[in-house]
Amino acid sequence: MTFPHSPFLIGPVSVPNRLVMAPLHEITDQPFRKFIREVGGVGLVVSEMISSEALVRHAVKAEKMMAATGERPLSMQVSGGRPEALAESARLCEAAGADLVDLNMGCPASNVTKGGAGSALLRDMRLAERCVTGMVKAVKIPVTVKMRAGWDASQKDRGEFLDFLKMFEAAGVQALAIHPRTRVQQYEGHADWSIIARAVAAGVPYPIIGNGDVNTREDAFRMVEETGCAAVMIGRGALTNPYLFRQILEPDLEVTTAMRIDATLRLFQILLDLLEPREALHKIKKIGAWFTKGVPGGHGFRQNLHAASDPVALMEAIDALRHQSVA
Ligand SMILES: Cc1cc2nc3c(=O)[nH]c(=O)nc-3n(C[C@H](O)[C@H](O)[C@H](O)COP(=O)(O)O)c2cc1C
């Protein structure tokens, strides 16, 4: 059985199973990636997107995003719309220890697309081609792409993504993740998995990684069955349930409330180990809110979380949640 246990190759890089943590801006930073690996089950993690323009001007914040501590394999994702900057940023990611470098061709945010980056590249195939070709030529590690189904419904309906697939093949791209919403859809509606199925049917030589709306073990198996994708990439599902990767691998794993609270605490400890306390607090406020969705007492906890002004107050909020949930 191939999914989910067996390894797969992205170029020469072996990914130990078929489960990938999606890149999430301001979330899949070094502490979160360490955390999600520790929880277990994930085969490949992808950094949050890093602006190539910020990297080439050596902006400290962007350089920090390349920090990595022995997480293998690790994909670093860059965004941008200028081939030279993307090529240089790919080189910087390779030098920083990335096993793979990914080009963001999906971000719908207007502050990204107005610079020609993210999903805006879907509107300019010639430029997209120069971007990926420049990256492939710049590094020895495999270059991958993450894309949406198109800019809008009409581009999607014309099947232009299939032309992109062929262009990626010719340019030497070694894996493609597809989040089959259009840019116009943002995060609304459903991810149209039939787009992933059509991409797989196109028979490109590199693996297609399916993404979008996988929130349960059943969703993951259904995506593979319906589309034939080589691996499944999960974003929000792993934020509400960081044990999801393990649950896909281990059908009998039951996730208790205590485990979810422990996860919140563990992530906070890792954040405190790796970041300044203020930054750790900011991050846990954001991510802890996802982790406790549906947990009894979660609403009150999120209020306490929001109000916490220092790490001690935050630990107390976690303790209170634990007591409430076992009461
Ligand atoms: C908070 C948030 C941040 C995201 N940041 C990125 C990013 O940095 N790069 C990227 O390619 N996609 C990003 N995405 C899109 C996700 O990687 C993924 O494609 C999308 O959420 C659909 O998958 P899901 O249904 O499993 O969440 C982001 C999504 C969310 C919700």
Characterise this structure:
With 327 residues, the protein is of the alpha/beta class. It folds into two domains: 8-249, TIM Barrel (Alpha-Beta Barrel), CATH 3.20.20; 257-326. Helix content is 49%, strand content 16%. The protein is built from 16 helices and ten strands. The chain has helices spanning 30-39, 52-56, 60-65, 83-95, 110-113, 125-138, 153-157, 160-171, 193-201, 217-227, 236-240, 244-249, 257-274, 277-291, 298-307, 311-326, and strands spanning 8-10, 13-15, 19-21, 44-51, 74-79, 100-105, 143-150, 175-182, 208-211, 231-234. Strands 3-4-5-6-7-8-9-10 form an eight-stranded parallel beta barrel, surrounded by six helices. Strand 8 (175-182), helix 9 (193-201) and strand 9 (208-211) form a beta-alpha-beta unit. 48% of the residues are buried. The structure holds flavin mononucleotide.
Secondary structure: elements and pairs:
Blueprint: E1 8-10, E2 13-15, E3 19-21, H1 30-39, E4 44-51, H2 52-56, H3 60-65, E5 74-79, H4 83-95, E6 100-105, H5 110-113, H6 125-138, E7 143-150, H7 153-157, H8 160-171, E8 175-182, H9 193-201, E9 208-211, H10 217-227, E10 231-234, H11 236-240, H12 244-249, H13 257-274, H14 277-291, H15 298-307, H16 311-326
Parallel strand pairs: 3-4, 3-10, 4-5, 5-6, 6-7, 7-8, 8-9, 9-10
Antiparallel strand pairs: 1-2
Helix pairs in contact: 1-13, 4-6, 6-8, 13-14, 13-16, 14-15, 15-16
Bound molecules: flavin mononucleotide.
